[in-house]
Amino acid sequence: MSYHRHSAFDALSAATSGELLLDEHYRCHPDIAAVVNERYYFGRLTVLTDVRQLRRRQSEAITWSHVKGSAVRDARGSWRNPTEAEQVTREVSALLQQLPSDGDIGVVTPFASQAALLAKRWAQEPRVRVGTVHTFQGGERDAIVLSLVADGNMPASTRSWLGRQRNLWNVAITRARSTLVLVGDRDVWQGIGEIDDVLDAADTKASNRRSASDLDDLPLRLYSWLTRDPANQVALSVSRDGYHADAVVRHGTDEAVILLDRGAAADASPSHHLRLQLARTRLLGPKARRVPAWQLFNDVDAY
Hints:
Layout: H1 8-16, E1 24-25, H2 30-40, E2 46-47, E3 62-66, E4 72-73, E5 79-80, H3 82-98, E6 105-109, H4 112-121, E7 128-132, H5 133-136, E8 141-147, H6 156-163, H7 166-174, E9 176-184, H8 186-189, H9 196-203, H10 217-226, E10 232-240, E11 243-251, E12 254-261, H11 270-283, E13 288-292
Parallel strand pairs: 1-2, 3-9, 6-7, 6-8, 8-9, 12-13
Antiparallel strand pairs: 4-5, 10-11, 11-12
Helix pairs in contact: 2-7, 3-4
């Protein structure tokens, strides 16, 4: 047996002829959870993290801190990157100022040599924990700073192998509750394996953007009805703290956030679907309301 190929979980799964996915996620900011949901769980997770309860800074949940350093190998074969370590130190120092006073930080890296280098710098700071990805498994922090280490001189085979370690990156990313900062050379990691999706999320946040041509008929019908009152200002497909709202309506100083409930899928439990829809509505804030899609075909006075 080995932890990465033939674990006890794999043995038990084979013995019981199946497994059950725990498909509701409450730990990470939705932008962080979205990366692993699409990459590793094929969109099967329902993210229900209450962002209002997170200890976080007022900025994007995922950011890249680009630095061109030089990776060197130690006598034991592990890698470190001193220039990148300096950048990590600056990022951690900034987070200590930006997070609430009770917010904690994890510094994570795939390489033991880099972890040892960084651990010396933060040995006296109780809010900061440093370790390799494996030592962080099962743990979590409000903010995670992920030091990637690799540079253009590291053997391509090493970078390629590292990029393919699905479990490693899944664990590293999901240790962060509210903030994930990746430190490394963007040019080196662009297009490499698992980490490329995180770079895309930090750069474009494309999953939170949809054009009018991407919208189905229901929100467009909602828009046409809501704008019958010329005093209403309506925005479709809006992101609130990482969650999707079908519309935000402003009327003077009043605001309403709308989540369209399109109904349960044919193979889903209606009661389970309703519970999740009500949970999503609460996560959109006190001014959010759930609108069953069938109501869009009623008279507009119903609104």
